[in-house]
Amino acid sequence: MACLHDHSCEDHDCSSDWSLYKHIDLSKISALNEATPGSVKSVFKAWEHRLNSSGEHLESNEGDPELLVFIPFTSDVKIKSISIVGGPDGTSPSKMRAFINRDGIDFSDAQSMQAIQEWDLAENMQGVLEYQTRYSKFQSVGNITLHFPDNFGGDITKIHYIGLKGEATQLKRDVVATIVYELMPNPSDHKTRAESGGGLSHVG
Amino acid sequence: MVLEATMICVDNSEWMRNGDYSPSRFQAQSDAVSLICGAKTQSNPENTVGVLTMAAKGVRVLATPTSDLGKILACMHGLEIGGQMNLAAGIQVAQLALKHRQNKKQQQRIIVFAGSPVKHEKKMLELIGRKLKKNSVALDIVNFGEEDEGKTEKLEALLAAVNNNDSSHMVHVPPGPNALSDVLISTPIFTGDGEGGSGFAAAAAAASAGGVSGYDFGVDPNLDPELALALRVSMEEERARQEAAAKKAAEDASKQEKGGGQHAISQDATMTENKTNDLDDESALLQQALAMSMDDPEVSHDVRDTDMSEAATDDPELALALQMSVADSAKDSASQTDVSKLLADQSFVSSVLASLPGVDPNDSSVKDLLASMQSQSDQKNEEERPNEEEEK
C-alpha cells in the first residue's frame, strides 16, 4: 500500500505534515536487537533530514536482521501514514508490523501476536514512499511498536529515518505524575472540612 | 540506581558439598545470594530479585522477582543438594521468569553461580548468549568451585555473546581464605556499572575490610551488636572519666597540665594493654568492661569507708555528693600510685612519649618535667596519707 508524492515539494511544505516526531517521548524510546544502545533516537528527525545518512542510524546486531522499535508519545496521536528510509545493499527492512498501545513487547511476543497492521516495504532510498495506515485503527495511539522481521538479504538491517504523519490530540494517557505513598495513615494529612474551619454547618 | 529485575541462578549440584570455600561451597553461595539481594533492593527500592535452582530436582523457580527480602532468604533455607547443574535450561527459565516480570520498565539481569563443570557445547552457550543480547538481558557469571578444563573458555564465550556495552560481567573466585561474598562485594556485580557502589555495598565492604580479627573490640558488630555496643560505651565512659581526672590534675598544680595528659594516656595504655590480652575471650572482655565501670564505685568505696562512714549511713544524698567529690581525688591518688610505678620504668615512659605527636622524649624540658613529676607524685602520696590519717 505505497503511494508516491506526485507534486513538487516547492509549493507545499512537506515537513509540516511529518511533524509527529515532535510528539514522541524521546527519553522512553527503546529498541531491541540494536547494535548500539540508544542509536534508535537518531532515526526520528525532521523531514528535511531524512536522507541525511552521515549521522547515527539504527543498526541491528550482526547476522540478525530483526528489529523491534518501541515509540511512546507524549499525548495520544492519530497516525495517518508511516515512512521508512532504510540502508543500501539489502539492509533495508522488507516487512513492517505494528502494535498499538502495548507495553514491553519482545521478540517472542511480536512473533506470536497478531499485529494491528502489516506492510510489505520497498527499498525506499529517496524517502518518497509512505505507507498508509487503516486510519480508523490508529485513532488514539499512546505508543506504537514497530517490528521489522526481515530485510532484503543483508547481514544486518539499517534504518536511517522513521517518519510519522498524522495529528496530535491533546489527550494524555496515564497522568499519574505525583503520587504520595502512605505507609500509615497520617491524620494531619487528611483534615476534614469541619476541622479546617470550612463548611456551612457548625454545631453549637 | 538502575531499576532492575534480577534472577539469581543457584547451583545446588553435588559439587557444592565441597569444603574448599568455608564453610561449604553451598553455604558460601547462599551468603553471597543474600548479600546480592540486599544490595539490589537497597540501591533502588523498586528493584526485584528472584531465585531459581539449576540442579537437584531440576530447574525450579523458588521465587519469582520480588522486592520482599524475607521471602528470598526463606526460600534459600532448606535447599537440597544433588544432581547436576543444567546451565542452559537454567538461563532460559530465568529469561522466561524475567519476561513475565510485573514492572516492564525494569532492566533484565541474570546472575549465574557456575560452580560445577559445564556440560553444554560452546556453540549452544553462544546461541543462548545471543538470544539474551537480542532481548537486552544482561548476564553476570560467578565462576567458582570446580576448575574444569574448558569451563572458563565456555563461560567466556557465553559472556562475549551476551555482552552489550559492558553491562555483563564475569567474576572468577578461586578458593581461599576470603569468603565468597567478601570477594564479590568489590566486583562490578555489586557496584553496578561504574556507579561507584551502593551504600550497602560500601558499608559491607568497610565491615569486611576490618578483617576477621581486626574489629574494634574483637567482636563483630554484625554478629553481636549489643556486646559491641556495651564495650564501646564502657570504653567511652572510661575515656570520659580519665579526661575528667586529667582536668582535675591540671587544676591542682600549675605544671601538671602536661603530666595529667600523660597520666591519662599511660592509664589508657595500661587499660588497652589489658584489653588486648583478653581480646580473644569475649566473656573475659565483658568482665573487663564491667570491672572498669565498677572501678569508680570501688575506689570511692575505700575512701568513703575511711573518711565518712558515719555520714554515709545517716544521709545517703550527702554521702553521694561526698563520694562524687572524693572520687575524683581518690582516682587521682589511685592513678598516681599506679602511674608512679610506671613512671619509674623509664623505658615505658619514653615509648609512650615517643607515640605522642609533637613530643620529643630526648628533649631536655621533657626530661626535666618527668623528673619533677616523679618527685611531685611522691610528695602527693605523702600528703594524702597524713590527710587520711588526720580525717580518721
From TrEMBL, chain A:
One of its GO terms (cellular component) is cytoplasm. It holds the Pfam family PITH. Residues 9-184 form the PITH domain. InterPro entries: Galactose-bd-like_sf, PITH1-like, PITH_dom, PITH_dom_sf. Belongs to the PITHD1 family. This is PITH domain-containing protein 1. It comes from Cicer arietinum (Chickpea).
TrEMBL record, chain B:
Keywords: Proteasome, Repeat. Residues 241-268, 294-313, 354-392 are annotated as: Disordered. Residues 241-260, 298-307 have a biased composition (Basic and acidic residues). Pfam families: UIM, VWA_2. Signal peptide: none annotated. One of its GO terms (cellular component) is nucleus. Residues 5-189 form the VWFA domain. Coiled coil: none annotated. One of its GO terms (molecular function) is polyubiquitin modification-dependent protein binding. InterPro entries: PSMD4, PSMD4_RAZUL-like, UIM_dom, VWF_A, vWFA_dom_sf. GO terms for biological process: proteasome-mediated ubiquitin-dependent protein catabolic process. Belongs to the proteasome subunit S5A family. PANTHER family: 26S PROTEASOME NON-ATPASE REGULATORY SUBUNIT 4. This is 26S proteasome non-ATPase regulatory subunit 4 homolog. The lineage of its organism: Eukaryota, Viridiplantae, Streptophyta, Embryophyta, Tracheophyta.
